[in-house]
Amino acid sequence: MPLTTLLTGTIAAAPAPTAVSRWLRIGITSVFCGLACYFLLCLRLSYFREYKWDADAKDVYSVLARYNHTYGVTDVGMSGLFFPALNYYRVLSKKEAFAEFRLVGPKPPDGKSVYVISEMQDRNFIDTEKLVIVYRGNFSDVVVAVQPGLE
Predict the structure, then answer these.
(1) Nearest Cα to 102, choosing from 118, 90, 120?
(2) Whole-prediction pTM
(3) What does the alpha-carbon distance between residue 123 and residue 117 come to, in Å, rounded to a whole number?
(4) What pLDDT is stored for residue 143 in this prediction?
(5) Are residues 55 and 6 in the same domain?
(6) How far is CA 139 from the centre of its chain?
(7) Which end of the chain is less congested by CB atoms within 10 angstroms, N or C?
(8) pLDDT tens column, 115-125
(9) DSSP state at residue 112
(10) Cβ–Cβ < 8 Å for 114, 73
(11) Which CB contacts under 8 angstroms, 24+ apart, belong to 45-53?
(12) Per the domain annotation, does 90 fall within a domain?
């Protein structure tokens, strides 16, 4: 495909001594402009549908960073598939004192002051631990829940 595009572009850039070659140049340029518009309209400016749970990761990390700066929270409990994206923002930021986020098991670990969990899957855990939800995701069911007194 790249070689075909290069060859077509070379043909379109060649001098046009005859009327047929001028029409060919106009046609090829029009096709390239149409393809450029098509590719621009196909850009995804939000999350990929397959990775919906990561759509709110940047906002979740900003909430975690606020709790790190305000309360000194460094250990976060989490469940689900949230930890890879949060590790990305942890490495990118370099301002917070978080250890690497890890998935300990299918359920969130006990005894943490801040949790990043799925509201639907971990509803019983939220109720049992009497956690307070301080952030709900806009695209996914991720929540940041904290122990009472930290809200």
Answers:
(1) 90
(2) 0.68
(3) 9
(4) 94
(5) no
(6) 11
(7) N
(8) 999 999 999 99
(9) -
(10) yes
(11) 46/139, 47/139, 52/139, 52/140, 53/80, 53/81, 53/82, 53/118, 53/140, 53/142
(12) yes
Nearest by Cα to 148 from 123, 120, 127 = 127
151 in any annotated domain: no
pLDDT score recorded for residue 47: 63
User: What's the sign of the alpha-carbon dihedral 47, 55, 90, 65?
Assistant: positive
pLDDT at 127 over 80: yes
- Enclosing H/E stretch for 118: strand 114-118
- Give the integer Cα–Cα distance in Å for 41 and 26: 23
Identify the sign of the CA torsion 124, 130, 136, 142: negative
Provide the domain count of the chain: 2
| Domain ranges, residue 29 | 2-41
Say whether both 32 and 72 belong to one domain: no
Domain shared by 37 and 53, yes or no:
no
Helix (H) or strand (E) holding 48: none
Q: Answer yes or no: do 55 and 116 share one domain.
A: yes
In this predicted structure, what is the pLDDT of residue 5?
72
Tell which wins on pLDDT, 65 or 103.
Answer: 65
Give the C-alpha distances (Å, rounded to integers) separating 9 from 3, 12, 15, 59.
10, 5, 12, 43
- Is residue 79 included in any domain, yes or no? yes
Both 62 and 33 in a single domain?
A: no
